[in-house]
Amino acid sequence: MADAPTAASNKxxxxxxxxxxxxxxxxxxxxxxxxxxxxxxxxxxxxxxVRKAIAGIHPDVVAKYYGCGLVVPECLEGFRVLDxxxxxxxxxxxxxxxxxEKGHVTGIDMTEDQLEVAQKYINYHMERFGYKKPNVxxxxxxxxxxxxxxxxxxxxxxxxxxxxxxxxxxxxSVLREAYRVLKDGGELYFSDVYSDARIPEDLKANNVLWGxxxxxxxxxxxxxxxxxxxxxxxxxxxxxxxxxxxxxELEKLLGDYKFVSATxxxxxxxxxxxxxxxxxxxxxxxTGVEESFEFDAQFTFKxxxxxxxxxxxxxxxxxxxxxxxxxxQPQDVNISSSGGCWDKPKAVSMNPxxxxxxxASASVTASTGGCCAGQESCCN
Length: 380
Prior knowledge:
The protein is of the alpha/beta class. The chain contains 13 helices and 13 strands.
């Protein structure tokens, strides 16, 4: 059994841990036991290669899955991945297939009952996947205290999390620890629940609202602030969808507060990384997104099509695992005003609530192709 993190000295924080353990270890036995729609998977279509990976997972593992989004970052083969709040291990076993036998996936969770299910089926999945030795392991510990769980600095390429950060009473420590264990160029790719305003303390004290991933939700603007304070680049919004609580009693308690499920990318770039606008061209070699790579809500890269990117995105691509997936053409002029005919990013809001409205009303400006789309090469 994992003890509460050393930093969690006050009774209120320890109480949250115990209540979450009780809720997800004892109260909830399966997905249908949830009292709201907050932890129900997103309605967004699941790519065929991901559906195939999920289909190979044991039903007992899937039955105790409580995620709110789809956390499958691209370009995973051979990399080391950490799942924060892995629960019964569904996402770990899905990613086990995508990183391949040379990659590795670690899941960490504080709920022993969930980890029992995850660990029970390690051999089952390794045999099913045809692996000679396990590429998955599970650790009992707290996502706010990865060092105490034995996870070393700069030891992971990618971190995922699926509807878990909202359950933490110390979200700053979650982000700080994620930043610490990521390698330079690494990424935190996660889905979670966000609110349209800060949630008051009286709602946070409601055990059911907290356990249902609602009253612990961050105001989305606080995520942006906290991430940058810890050291991450400005978060990139990938997708968002409105959460309908679906429980009249809980809706009455929540009043006018609104919630979204949103997926963000947070990158840890090397110190001193340069930011310079340029043109990039996607080479189409990432498994599952060979024709079109949806990097975030603003940028979708089509194979062999040249696209204009700002300095922030250029730095993310060139200093991460995606560097070899693109060719880059530096610009000696301000490309935003040079009248180029390459593809351009979509004009979308980085506010997840506004993004949902834009997507629903089809008001997102499509990228525009042009005479540069057929350009054969770019140079570094």
